[in-house]
Amino acid sequence: MHATVAESAITSGGRRFRWRVVDIVVASVIGVAVGVIFWAWGVAWGPVSAPIEALLPGLQAAPAAVWLIAGVLGALIIRKPGAALYTELVAAIISSLIGSQWGGLLTIEAGLVQGLGAEIVFALFLYRYWRLPAALLAGAGAGLAMAINDLVLWYAGAAPAFAVVYTISAVVGGAIIAGGLSWLAARGLARSGALGRFASGREIRAS
Amino acid sequence: MRTGEPVADARPVEIQARRWGWRHGGRRDAAIAGLDLRIAPGERVLLLGASGSGKSTLLHGLAGVLGGDEDGESRGELLIDGRPPEASRGRSGLVLQDPDSQLVMARLGDDVAFGLENLGVPADAIWPRVADALDAVGLRLPHPHSTANLSGGQRQRLALAGVLAMRPGLILLDEPTANLDPDGVREVRDAVARVADESGATLVVIEHRVSVWLPVVDRVVVLGQGGRLIADGRPADVLSDRGGELRAAGVWLPTDVPWRAHAPGSAPPEPLMATAALDVARVPGDPVQRGIDTRVDAGRILAVTGPNGAGKSTLALTLAGLVRPDGGELAARAALAGDLGSEPWRWRSRDLLTRIGTVFQNPEHQFLTGSVRAELEVGPRALKLSSRERTTRVDRMLDALRLDPLADANPFTLSGGEKRRLSVATVLASRPRMLVLDEPTFGQDANTWRELARLIVELRDEGVGVVAVTHDETFVEAVADTRLVLAAPSDDGDERVGSASAPHGDSASQGTQRGVRA
Amino acid sequence: MSIGMVRPDLPLAAVNPVAKVAATIPLSIALVLTLDPVSAGVAIVCELIVFMAIGLGSLLWSPRTLPVWIAAPLTGLSMVLYGAPSGATFWEFGLIRISEGSLEIGLATMTRVIAIALPAVVLFLTIDPTDFADGLAQTLRLPARFVLGALAALRLVGSSIDDWRTLALARRARGVADRGVIRRSLGQAFALLVLAIRRGSTLATAMEARGFGASAERTWARRVHFGGTEWVVIAVGCLVAAVSVTAAVVTGSWNLVWS
Known about the structure:
The structure holds three protein chains of three kinds. By secondary structure, chain A is mostly helical. Chain A has one domain (18-206). Chain A has eight helices and no strands. Chain B has helices at residues 55-63, 108-118, 123-136, 152-165, 182-199, 210-213, 235-241, 243-248, 312-319, 334-337, 349-353, 372-382, 387-400, 416-428, 446-461, 473-478; strands at residues 15-24, 32-39, 44-49, 72-80, 92-95, 170-174, 202-206, 219-223, 229-233, 271-280, 289-297, 301-305, 327-332, 356-359, 434-438, 465-469, 482-485, 499-501. The interface between A and B is medium-sized, with 23 and 18 residues.
């Protein structure tokens, strides 16, 4: 049906990294959509985390990795420098506009830090490599950033054992939930043809 | 605030295409290639062609929104007033098909001002131009009015106002009325006609339903596969000389009825479902329509019509057993319910499959899988049919609805007509005794329309009871057996008056409805 | 929802959102620095007084602040059970060690969460996204392309909510709604994303066709002001922070977290 050819990387570096209007708007749409999910997860958070917090200390960082999805997903789709940071930030702002128990400013700050965690990983790959390992590592990076941020700001009085468990669950949860799920979603979106205007959409449909 | 100036720059645009072509990034074939076309300043052109003729690509090219190297590859030359469209921002304005995807701002006035801000118009010059543009399209609402509360027709007029405020010399319309009900179509068409008269701007419009735009245009251009120029000339000449080719391309010619159904058998129909004083609501406790008395018969097609907001879709969802009635009575008869109770909204999801099938207005809402074949298997699988039976049914549906070549394609990547055929096929694969369709012919070209109409009548003749919610008068007149008219919501939100008629002259019309005061 | 339009009659609705966000900064920083119940407790009292005084009292008890009241004790409980132990130990079980010290940390954490979150939730409820975007782009001079892109994307929330409802009904109609809630929700979320991105791409085209993203210098139809009222709002924020810190220092409970 749809004759496709692999997109060759002939475009120059500067062009490749420039944000088009469609990049900005679709990154924003992803940010908004995931931001609503963030908010809903925040409302459901009490019942979800309470048993974990009571029985398995620090392990609540694993389900908290749902709050890391926006950045990884945005970067996998848009593939521009800053995409992870921007998408996660938009999602955080949206969820705080609706109302977040972690305060507006600190929710936005968390989004910034978590987005940065994923962004750094993609930057280390020079924004050239977007396969599953990169997604998993970016999710782990976002998880690590989240753990550091939370331990400093919210669990400042925690015992070392708690901190270690919290960090490990955040990294593993980040890799699986934010990295793995985002990668699956990005692949599905590409196959659905919704990413026709993005290199991420054309590449997968070509293979 | 009014400036009294013309709404658009008096200088209409000239269009010149020389061997122009465009290939979307990642596609092997060009969407459009080697196009030679000149449109004189002030001409009003209706652009026709089958899907795949690249007419949308041409329009996007003229608007300068095809993008750069990252988006695709351009050949030849496409110029407006002798310059590339990308370099003439603000000289052209584009209105697209989907009313929901073109709202930029939350407030009416801001939305119109958006383009002017982008063009760097000084702040004090913006608001008078916003007022003029809103006036020109007949949207007389306060500037802070929420854009989310506008109807489809109002949204499209708002998009048009946003374009007009920029005072473009070229107005481009990409199926601006395809998603609207008849009132909305008239609203938008009339606004365009008025604006074109006042401004003298060049106009290019794409639309399948020719009759809507004939009064407005003075030239028709027909594109074939890949942008080949098939016909070009005065509307009357092109339509009469090239009628056959146009019909083959799915174009609706004026006064055309693509196909007509024969009357149903004379045997008295068996009722599947009946309602008495039924209230329907999307949100429980907030009914959108009250006091509906109607009946769904096996082997008959019931058309539900009425203006937007009259609760047609909500009634469809209620009859389909997806939404609980908000009051009154809805009872499935034994012929439909079998061994289950008479309240379809209490049935299990799986039990609905063989009883009531629902085709949603937007096919994408009901797609669940990654391939056409898997999509067709969802129903039979849920019914726990043997794998042999499943394959037989799926193959038959693929064949009947000409979906064979697409069996492995992702449902979301199909064309509009293909998606519609697939959504109908998925429902038929589980063989329901009653079928509920929400706007089955919405936005379809004449070919898909004919196929759908034939299929629905075939089902009727096999004894399936069909309910079709529709705005499409042609469909009601040529296909439906009875009609239920829902009245517009009145100001106090309580009183409803309905009427009934029988398109086939069937005197046993059952589509009646009482006016009730709560 | 404040992702839609905000009621213009709400107190503070007309204040530049940048000021409202800025007003929460001093207290957030102060409370993050210390972990003691006095500063947070005083802050909560001040917040209640201020919000009641300006007529935002009703928002304090709206359903939107409910997550705060639920999350705060939970976070506090975490610290009671797993906070760094000190003083007398009351109960021990595995990693759990409830001690005098961990009880104090738990109480401090709970009040701190409330003190930080409450003003933000209430103030953000008075922020209209359009005003927020105007403030970000004009007052803070953030890149207009990104601010407006995000603002425009908000238009799709309404249609996404409708989509979600219809997607759920469609799943029932297709016979798959009897079980598998989690898997079905994931599939539904995916379908929602497909529809949203499609609409987003169209929206981008519509915006580009109206000159968005072009190199020309952009103007603003509505100038955003930042004047006396805004400075007063920020000053009140600073004052609340100062009172809380002073109270903690004076009572000797000021407790720098990383010391």
